[in-house]
Amino acid sequence: MARLADYFVLVAFGPGPRAGSGEGQGQILQRFPEKDWEDNPFPQGIELFCQPSGWQLCPERNPPTFFIAVLTDINSERHYCACLTFWEPVEPSQAPACTGEEEEEAGERPSPSALGPPSQLFAPKTLVLVSRLDHAEVFRNSLGLIYTVHVEGLSVSLENVIGNLLTCTIPITGGSQPDSMEEGARTISLGAGDRQVIQTPLTDSLPVSCCSVALLFRQLGITNVLALFCAALTEHKILFLSRSYQRLTDACRGLLALLFPLRYSFTYVPILPAQLLEVLSTPTPFIIGVNSLFQAETQELLDVIIADLDGGTVTVPECVHIPPLPEPLHSQTHSALCMVLDPELELADLAFPPPATSTSSLKMQDKELRAVFLRLFAQLLQGYRWCLHIVRIHPEPVIRFHKAAFLGQRGLVEDDFLLKVLEGMAFAGFVSERGVPYRTTDLFDELVANEVKRMRADENQPHRILRHVKELAEQLYKNENPYPAVTMHKVQRPGEGSHLRRAPRPFPRLDESTVQWIIDQATAKLQGAPPAVRAEKKATVPSGPPMAAIVERNGAVHANSARRLEVVRNCISYVFEGKMLEAKKLLPAVLRALKGRAARRCLTRELHLHVQQNRAVLDHQQFDFVVRMMNCCLQDCTAMDEHGIAAALLPLVTAFCRKLSPGVTQFAYSCVQEHVVWSTPQFWEAMFYGDVQTHIRALYLEPTEEEDGPSAKGEDEEDEEQEEERSALDVASEQRRLWPTLGRDKQQELVQKEESTVFSQAIHYANRMSYLLLPLDSSKSRLLRERAGLGDLESMSNSVVTNSMAGSMAESYDTESGFEDAETSDVAGAVVRFINRFVDKVCTESGVTSEHLKGLHVMVPDIVQMHIETLEAVHRESKRLPPIQKPKLLRPSLLPGEECVLDGLRVYLLPDGREEGSGGSLGGPALLPAEGAVFLTTYRVIFTGMPTDPLVGEQVVVRSFPVASLTKEKRISVQAHVDQFLQDGLQLRSCTFQLLKMAFDEEVGSESAEVFRKHLHKLRYPADIKGTFAFTAGSIHTAGRQPRTTKEKSPSLRTLSRNLVKNAKKTIGRQYVTRKKYNPPSWEQRGQPVPPDDQEDEISVSEELEPSTLTPTSALKPSDRLTMNSLVERACCRDYQRLGLGTLSSSLSRAKSEPFRVTPVNRMYAICRSYPGLLIVPQTIQDNTLQRISRCYRQNRFPVVCWRSSRSKAVLLRSGGLHGKGVVGLFKAQNAPSPGQSQADSSSLEQEKYLQAVVSAMPRYADAASGRNTLSGFTSMHMASHAPSPRARVTTLSNPTTASVTRRTAPRGKWGSIRASGRSSGPSLGVDVGSRLAGKDLLVPPQPNGAPSEPGFLRPQRAALYIIGDKAQLKGVRPDPLQQWELVPIEVFEVRQVKASFKKLLKACVPGCPAGEQSPASYLRSLEESEWLIQIHKLLQVSVLVVELLDSGSSVLVSLEDGWDITTQVVSLVQLLSDPYYRTLEGFRLLVEKEWLSFGHRFTHRGAHTLAGQSSGFAPIFLQFLDCVHQVHLQFPMEFEFSQFYLKFLSYHHVSHRFRTFLLDSDYERIELGLLYDEKGERKSQQACKSVWEYVERLSKKTPVFYNYMYAPEDTEVLRPYSNVSNLKVWDFYTRETLAEGPPYDWELAQGPPEPPEEERPDGGAPQSRRRVIWPCYDSRLRAQPDAISRLLEELQRLETELGRPSERWKDTWDRVKAAQRSEARQDGRSTPSSLLMSSVSHHRRSLGVYLQEGPVGSTLSLSLDSDQSSGSTPSSGRQAARRSTSTLYSQFQTAESENRSYEGTLYKKGAFMKPWKARWFVLDKTKHQLRYYDHRVDTDCKGVIDLAEVESVTPGTPTMGAPKTVDEKAFFDVKTTRRVYNFCAQDVHLAQQWVDRLQSCLSDA
What pTM was computed for the model? Predict the structure, then answer.
């Protein structure tokens, strides 16, 4: 029996600490009993909980209130405090003297009248009942009775009632079903004519919830309650808010009831008093209830989940993540709760709903909801008993839960919710309480053991689920109400409104002695009675079905078919039978199969069998195979080892071994240490407990002492079988049942046996751990580097630590173990500490005595030291083993002049994020990982190797990139590989879109890897530009030595360069002399104007200049003449001449008719160092004013003309951005300048004059007309490209009073988008405005795809000049009053944005590591995030805008940033789009030389070529330009003479440093280094090309690789490409690679051996099909399958070679074919086509025109290269034309040899003046009437031609100086032409005569 109530307390209002505040505090007036019970001391702080909101007086009498607060004592015992509060009037002496104001504060209501007497105040008084039992209704009735007796004045003694209440005892809960009603239910009376029945629950472990759970769901709803449920289980802080205290208590009780069978073990305070609110900021989890009055105080809690019961909301802070229930349990629980709470939901949609069924009562619904959660727990924890480890049985059971095995077997390893629940305190309590094998069981135990199958069967059948829920609810209800029939209460209550009646008197003071006497009487009576023993019915807890049944449902990740397991078994049996070749064949398949769990289990089982058969000693090959398979098994094991693979392998790695030498054995554990699982303490603990359980079970299953003698054998065997089946828990349960019956000695003996079992296992595990934790070579301290987890167990990090960190960690380990050997002590110390921590933990938990534990601590260092000594011998012997045969290193082929800096370092090339190479989902072979070597040369980083997958075959894998293109080098950590153990790795990323992700082989020491990195860094960032490969090629490269200088070939040019620089330095003045290089302002200062003092310094130069340098005179100084000649040869000057912008001579003579002239003012680079020497300026501008004008612009880059439209004569100018003092300042000035002008003002005026001169120089604007309209249309409305349907608004201001507005709905704005859309953040490149608007009548609808409309867009009267400038600089600019020029401010993206975008593009196209879900969407997402295509779009758009303006006759000045990045991009694109010449090979070269090289794009700075630029990083400005050209090329494939390959070639080589072309930042710097003028002098030399153009020229002669066969230009074509992102394509330069040969841009290296022709088959069989399998990313598709024309040209060349004739150049052949095609077209009478290739697509976008036609017989390839939209031709005429053109082509290729080569042979020829005699191969061609000569017979490159039409005579000659000595004099003859006399010499007289005769006959024929 137990006491119903422990204490009765009367608490009243007392004055507070602050007198006169109206706030009081609780005072305990009386408590009964006055002495504490021994078993239950009086809880402190009750007075706080009686009035949780604080003790306050009230102006009116409130009705009595009742609630139950819960207090938790220090022993985690809960005390239920039932509080009934009523109000009594305050006696005047007691009332505080307070003003009305204070009263208002205290009672929150003002007094009824301020004039009348002070109103009556009421004070609270509380009756409190304290109990350890939770019988809420009984407490409410009992306190209500006491209150009723007092208020109604009943003739009952209050002392008696209270005495009876305190002495009332009730039956102990739990135990068996009571036999009689009295035992389970007790009727009590307190002596006031009352009667109450108290029913005790049948099972005390099941919580009692009344209606609290149902109320909680009613208040918060299903989703919110589920969130709170998950939050409570995962240990979050939960706070309930309500105005009702009883509601708070109910909600907390309901939540705890839902958590059953787990018990909540953190802070639990259903009602928190106001004075204790600071408890809410505790760091531990809690469930607390607080009155809504204090809601404001809870707002600052950042990590508390707040449930508002009154408002029905749950607020989860952002920083809190509540893991949801795992699916499908979450959805199943949700639907079950819906069925319980809203049963009509299922019927809501029925056409004929059944008659309304009666809903469950609230109490029943409460139990049904709990039943749903009980089912949920049974499903969550099903099979948990199979993962319990029983570590000790006696004296008390010690049980541990194998969390990893449970998660692994349930397939929920990744589930965040279950992981947190299992790690929580509640689950730890669950294991210790419910893990016990022999105890009383309850509803949950039966459910989890017996109902799992039923729940699985019911999963998709709601009605069966509901039936099960109702069954469980019945049981729960019965547990709370075992006797529903007798729940009749009879308790008196006070009358209605009794609290308002004036009470006869305050609550009386009770007589303590009376109450105490009643209590003492009852106590004495109880002492005499026999002690109440709880009748517990203990039993073995059922375990339920084993885990295997659950696992089947989840299935393995890989479908491991029986065939795979068979392969694993076969391979192992081959290994043990010594059939190594067979095993080797199967090994790759086995290693692949071992990714699956079933195959790994199969492997461990098979190996166990072999250990049992004593076959654990292996030879070297067997050992290698077994170790490889073990490593493969372990590499996919997580640190938890949830599938038990590492656990199964642990006994095997200590069994398998090989003998290295007599007495030295190497065990497998020394080769499988590199796995994270071995350094995880949880793994070792689980293993230890599992083994202890096995031994403890064996201890009790041992046959008893053989006292009875031998018994029948059969019985024993049966017993043994039964015992085998019994689990450890069953054995433990049996032992616990027997324990009380054993004698004391027997008990002691069993305890000692168990303890010694645990102790011996601890020693065994100390050994095992030392085996797997100590590395084979302990001197390396590799262990510390690779397993930081050991050194720093608390953090449990398993990341790889770098060498430097490892060193510092090693130093920090104390060497307390006292080893002498300092090298090993750091490893040993770490291992000793790791093992000691483990031993401490497991032994303390398993109850090992402290003496034994001390002994273990002494033993561990000795075990470790002994093992280290053993390993030293093993390590020494293993080094003597012959190394595993590794593949031979493949040496890469090198370019001429390229030298190896570091020979091959053995590495593995690992797969990166590109799927193709590793054979991912696209299929194809797994080329990666590949085993090979990395080579570092002066030019490239090269990997060559072969795939490790033996099924791929012997394919060579090559991946390389130029050293100069390296952008990022990063150390990476690499998991152990299938084959070998790998050390650290290195990831190299290059801006040629290549990635080398390498892991160094174990034979490559960290020193070698470090040397590699240092050399790489030195080559990537040389100290000086002369250290780059373009300069050092061919010189012997040794580290730390300067490259040798090459011999000067043309001293005159070198001297010229030096003189030029000297003169420039003299001219410029002193401030430049000290500087070696041109250093523009740093990037940080770009946006700001240069500080005034610097600027003055720059400006002051002009005063020092000699007048002669700046004033052009017709007579230049002789020293300048040579400079001028060289400058005139530059690309700029050639282009100026072509464009008709004047030549230097015409400009110097000042031909006034020309509007522009060439000025040599910058020839010494005095005005602007980054400009070329010769510039185009308006004719009217004097040279001496240019200096002043240049000051207004950044970097002195003043506006100069760079192109003129041949049609509209508009000019394109470029300059740097404006300084603050420049034109902007001028435009901003509202007033006329004052008379006292400063220098800056004069500069601005000069600048205005300059712009005026530009305007005047244009023919159409020479007569300036005022009032003209200008550009506008480019409003932001127009520019919104991403708006779905922007309306273009156009206003004409030609008549300002009637400004009409036309709206048109167009799919895109007029120009596509120049303003950035909302989706791209950051500064955008967009035209914001023009200030005036174009005429609406000329606005034509725009074309789709955002292309601009036809050029009629702008009206004839526009501004003459548009200045496109940075928006930031042109803010608030006043327009030009004469409207001759207009500012177009646009936002430009900065270089840092281009860099950031490029980095993201690199990662998108060449990801560093395989993505989790490789999908096209993820690639597209990362591509979009890079914003690269958006930048391309903006560049193209601005360029198209400028093209339109130029085309319509307005000039444009592009004046952005410093004038060398975006300006260059825009200006180059504009010229390319406007002028067809630049779309030829020659023209494009000229464009790049002029705009990029001469106008000073900073290639060295942007490409970070030297050490100085390392920090600035790579900025792909030129690459971005080439990408734009590529986009235009795709849209206009017939307008470009060059191919896409040409663009890729330039993209690759502008960063490769193979050529000198793209080095340095300006012409000035190139002159300083002597680069600019030495090219011509060295061109004849046999060295490798120094210029990329020269290389392209040479290569173009040999092969049409740079030529576009579809080239068919329209001369007048101005290209207007679509620029929307949807029209742009990702360049395949970024994504494509060829692993067979590396990048194809070094032509000499990319040309592999030619395919053997089909006739020459070695086996002599019939020629087979020429089909080839091409692998993605390995083979070059274009090489394997060239286009038709290339194929024909190759075939032609091959046939000519076979016939022994030197083949003609491909270009000549091609030109002939085109000519023949045209002439044939003329003969047919067709209109002459403009080109060879045309297609029938629309005029605006013309694409490939080669098509196939079917001939009359079979199918012939019709290279009808001439279809000009044949409008009237019928199909038959088309066929005839096709046949005719084919025959013409054929006759062109099949010319007879006799015609082409009439006679040929060797002759000596005397060279020109001062040149020697040389033997040449001469060919006399009657057809062409030529005498051609070649270097030798097979040479295809003709070295010269003598046209026979020019020959006057052939005469005998005489030998001259240097002629061959042995030849007869008569063998000489001369050929005289109109130009010169050629001297020849034949080998003898006869041959000479023949040559003379042949020549004469040719001449006579002519």
Answer: 0.54
